[in-house]
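Changelog note: in this version the structure field was regenerated for every chain. One regenerated record is shown below for reference.
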Amino acid sequence: MSLTITVEQVLPAARVADFYALYRAAFGPLLRAAAARHMLSAEEFAEEMADPRIIKHVAWSDGEPVALTTVTTDLDAVAWISPEFYAARYPQYAARKAIFYLGYTLIRPEYQNSGLYQRFNIRIGAQAKRADGILAMDVCGFNAARRLPEGVAAMARQFGGALTQVDTQSYYVVAPV
């Protein structure tokens, strides 16, 4: 299995449907497993793929995309987070645009144990370290239970950092008893 990783600012419009299929396959389980909406519409996804502020790390095998991870240092590019939250807590990093926000990672099922997740994290972690920056991300309870943060924590230790939870969101229902 020969894999190549490229870094793209904008993905060609002709390839966005391929990536959206990968996105739907990767995030489909969250439709019923997470209270928050994690699935972007095709239009929202296409907008992110065309947004040069959101950097796309793409893994290719024989010319076909097999994985994608997104990262940005422009927190205004991420609709579901509060740039003000990060600026208030990490003003020195926010002022230098040195907060690297990991958006999402999509990996085709047959490549999920190939080490791509770690390779993406190491690449982006090294980039943040060179910029004297920090990494930020969100992880829903479903993925936290799948031990997803442990991979990020291992990468953080490699770069002399530590993973810290900075916020939580809980969803409640009031129902008849």
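Spot check on this record: The radius of gyration is 16 Å. Residues 21 and 94 are 33 Å apart (CA to CA).
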